[in-house]
């Protein structure tokens, strides 16, 4: 591995013009494909194996013109104080809205518009009514004309003194990330300048990361319609691609500068940096890819496609780090070094690699002196932060989670006030049978405690199926509504199915819960085997996995405290608390595990390298921190800044993901990798690197630390022969 990457990096350095040209051509090709492709849609959403999905499929079969999965809108109208919506003036304005939607711009995408006076959609006090509109396509597939017509539908009514607000997913738009993402990149640039002391060295990781993300995201955009990718896929790929792209380039550039400091020629330094740090990048990237592709075990097509697309962006980031970074280092020349080092290294032509104590060295020695205290402080501290995770409530956000200033949230509140909170999440009960079965189902549902109202069955043309609308008493995200869904299902046979947005959300949350443990087992198990190959140890990968789980649970605790309980909500821009997004735990596990292993591989590989070269366990920990701590800290700060930048998004889901990932990286990098890991290694000593001899013989030697590369290049061999290294790991 190391020898192959050495040749790859050195070749890219020497043929830098050709390598750079190929990457630029690839970027332009991907950009052209994205520019000429049709705009991405929201992607089809399905949850195979759930009752809600079976009901949707049955609706498509029995009610072909119903557009069960089409966008919906509710135009809520409230009369002025002292008036009623049944009065002639307000009634005329409401009917004008109905007619405008049916005949105005975008009417070709309208499936149906219900006149509220014909379907008795008027509150008991007569103050409020609502118009239900159903579209033939999803919210992201609506034409601008249809969406604009919906937004403007109530303007005349507003001018007449009525309060008109619009809710539903027909107003769905791609989330705006705001300026936070740009701020995150600026913070990353500042950190890189401080770390490298050179504008060129600082700009190089940013440039290569942007090129990699540009190719990845452009490819996703170009293939969005062909592969039915959701509009959030590109956001995820950008988030992950920027973070790992900057980090991987940072690792290569840092090692390149260290090799120059040891007196290597520039092309030799590029080759050695790619062979050593590049090996760590390959295996770190593999853990991220495993974590993202592993999302397929959840068996939700949308999530699988998001994971695979983001994994593709990570693969591009790895290839960019191994080829384009060495090529650009060739163009940069002496400019990657601070001014003081240029003259020392290139002027006098001798090595300047004397070991000097730095912040990483001092911190490692502090931990080695007090390993028990540091270990207990880290574990207990994260354990306390993790406590709120025991009260985790999961669900999918609805209009009730929108900021109070939005029309969706105001429509939600008006419906709750006028009709009851359950009107915001009606249930659709699909009966696969005749009228007698439908009538008996209605009678049974009316007797359930959590039901506010049951509408008469609506049969299909053939008369062999019906749809019953059930209004719960409580809001869609409440546990009482979830209990009602289970009650209806438990008392029904296979011919009566419950669906609708609320039931779909409940099934989605259950699906995510059921998949979490198998997903953990798959991802952690595969990564454990991968890390065992890298470190030739059992305890080091085990410690890495357990530390990750601790940091993720602590991050979930912080997410619950902020987004569910509202602690410090105003600081983080949380306007409305509620259940945590259903995919958050499994998504955080997948993404953070791969990213956390970046630090584990880069930091501990240096320790392993020092240990294999003969240093004592404690001194190897110090050496690892001496060479890697500064880079790992910089990489963590950069990743936190990139993720935190997404907290400025208008969408609550993106905001929650950005916060959760930023907090998780902070806990994992600064508490687990920088504190708990050296403390555990200090307590384990030689035992940390133990591997049974029989297992050592079975595992292929991937040589991430570059020992075979060093011997190959320098013609060195240890007096004890090749069995010496086996003795180190097998004793």
Polypeptide structure, described:
The protein is α+β, with helices and mostly antiparallel strands and 731 residues long. It has 25 helices and eleven strands. The strands form three sheets. Strands 6, 7, 8, 9 and 10 form a five-stranded antiparallel beta sheet that branches. Strands 2-3-1-4 form a four-stranded antiparallel beta sheet, with helices on both faces. A two-stranded parallel ribbon has the order 5-11. It starts with a helix and ends with a helix. Mean pLDDT is 83; it is low at 346-354 and 716-731.
Q: What is the residue-mean pLDDT, rounded to a whole number?
A: 83
Low-confidence stretches: 346-354, 716-731
Structural class: alpha+beta
The residue fraction in helices comes out at 55-70%
Total strand segments: 11
Tally of DSSP helical segments? 25
Radius of gyration: 30 Å
Overall body shape: elongated
Largest sheet, if any? 5 strands, antiparallel
* Strand residue content: 5-15%
Distance between the termini: 25 Å
In short:
The chain has helices at residues 2-14, 16-36, 51-62, 88-103, 144-152, 155-159, 180-196, 199-227, 233-261, 266-293, 301-332, 339-347, 359-369, 371-386, 407-419, 435-446, 479-490, 501-535, 539-564, 584-612, 617-645, 652-684, 693-698, 707-714, 723-730, and strands at 72-78, 110-114, 128-135, 163-167, 394-395, 427-431, 451-454, 458-459, 466-472, 496-499, 580-581. It has 731 residues and is of the alpha+beta class.
């Amino acid at each position: 591995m190391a020898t192959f990457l050495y040749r790859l990096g050195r070749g890219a350095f020497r043929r830098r013009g050709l390598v750079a040209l190929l990457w630029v051509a690839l970027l332009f090709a991907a950009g052209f494909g994205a520019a000429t492709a049709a705009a991405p849609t929201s992607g089809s959403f399905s949850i195979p194996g759930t009752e809600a999905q079976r009901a949707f499929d049955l609706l498509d079969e029995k009610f072909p013109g119903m557009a069960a999965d089409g966008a919906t809108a509710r135009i809520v109208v409230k009369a002025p104080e002292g008036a009623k919506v049944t009065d002639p003036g307000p009634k005329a304005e409401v009917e004008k809205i109905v007619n405008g939607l049916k005949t105005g711009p975008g009417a070709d995408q309208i499936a149906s518009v219900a006149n509220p006076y014909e379907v008795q959609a008027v509150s008991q006090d007569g103050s409020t009514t609502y118009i239900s509109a159903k579209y033939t396509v999803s919210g992201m597939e609506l034409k601008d004309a249809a969406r604009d017509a919906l937004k403007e539908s109530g303007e005349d009514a507003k001018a007449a003194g009525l309060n008109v607000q619009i809710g539903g997913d027909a107003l769905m738009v791609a989330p705006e990330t705001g300026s936070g993402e740009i701020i995150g990149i600026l913070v990353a640039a500042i950190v890189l300048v401080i770390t490298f002391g050179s504008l060129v060295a600082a700009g190089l990781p940013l440039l290569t990361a942007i090129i990699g993300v540009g190719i990845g995201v452009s490819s996703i955009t170009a293939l969005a319609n062909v592969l039915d990718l959701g509009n959030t896929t590109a956001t995820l790929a950008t988030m992950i691609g920027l973070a790992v792209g900057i980090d991987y380039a940072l690792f290569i550039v840092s090692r390149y500068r260290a090799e120059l400091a040891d007196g290597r020629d520039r092309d030799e330094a590029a080759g050695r940096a790619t062979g050593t740090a590049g090996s760590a990048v390959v295996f770190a990237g593999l853990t991220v890819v495993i974590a993202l592709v592993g999302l397929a075990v959840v068996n939700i097509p949308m999530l699988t496609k998001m994971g695979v697309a983001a994994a593709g962006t990570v693969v591009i980031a790895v290839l960019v780090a191994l080829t384009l970074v060495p090529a650009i280092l060739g163009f940069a020349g002496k400019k990657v070094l601070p001014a003081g080092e240029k003259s020392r290294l290139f002027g006098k032509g001798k090595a300047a690699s004397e070991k000097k104590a730095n912040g990483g060295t001092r911190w490692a020695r502090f931990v080695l002196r007090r390993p028990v205290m540091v270990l207990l402080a880290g574990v207990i501290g994260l354990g306390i932060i993790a406590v709120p995770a025991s009260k985790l409530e999961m669900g999918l956000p609805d209009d009730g989670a929108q900021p109070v200033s939005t029309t969706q949230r105001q429509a939600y509140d008006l419906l709750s006030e006028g009709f009851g909170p359950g009107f915001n999440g009606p249930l659709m009960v699909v009966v696969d049978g005749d009228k007698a079965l439908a009538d008996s189902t209605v009678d049974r549902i009316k007797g359930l405690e959590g039901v506010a109202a049951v509408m008469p069955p609506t049969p299909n043309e053939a008369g062999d199926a019906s749809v019953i609308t059930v209004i719960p008493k409580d809001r869609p995200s409440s546990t009482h509504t979830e209990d009602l869904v289970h009650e209806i299902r438990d008392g029904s046979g296979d011919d009566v199915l419950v669906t609708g947005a609320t039931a779909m959300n409940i099934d989605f949350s259950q699906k995510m819960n059921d998949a979490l443990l198998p997903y953990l087992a798959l991802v952690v198990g595969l990564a454990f085997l991968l890390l065992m190959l890298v470190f030739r140890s059992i305890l080091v990968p085990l410690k890495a996995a357990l530390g990750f789980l601790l940091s993720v649970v602590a991050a979930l605790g912080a997410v619950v405290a902020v987004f569910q309980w509202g602690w410090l909500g105003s600081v983080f821009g949380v306007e409305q608390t509620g259940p945590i997004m259903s995919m958050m735990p499994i998504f955080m596990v997948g993404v953070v595990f791969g990213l956390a292993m970046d630090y584990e591989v880069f930091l501990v590989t240096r320790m392993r390298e020092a240990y294999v070269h003969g240093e004592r366990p404690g001194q190897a920990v110090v050496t690892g921190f001496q060479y890697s701590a500064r880079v790992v800290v910089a990489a963590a700060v950069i990743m936190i800044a990139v993720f935190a930048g997404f907290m400025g998004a208008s969408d609550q889901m993106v905001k929650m993901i950005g916060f959760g990932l930023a907090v998780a990286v902070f806990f994992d990098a600064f508490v687990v990798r920088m504190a708990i890991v050296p403390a555990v290694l200090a307590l384990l000593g030689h035992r940390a690197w133990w591997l049974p001899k029989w297992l050592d013989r079975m595992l292929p030697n991937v040589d991430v630390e570059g020992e075979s590369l060093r011997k190959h290049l320098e013609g060195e061999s240890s007096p004890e022969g090749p069995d010496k290294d086996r003795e180190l790991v097998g004793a």
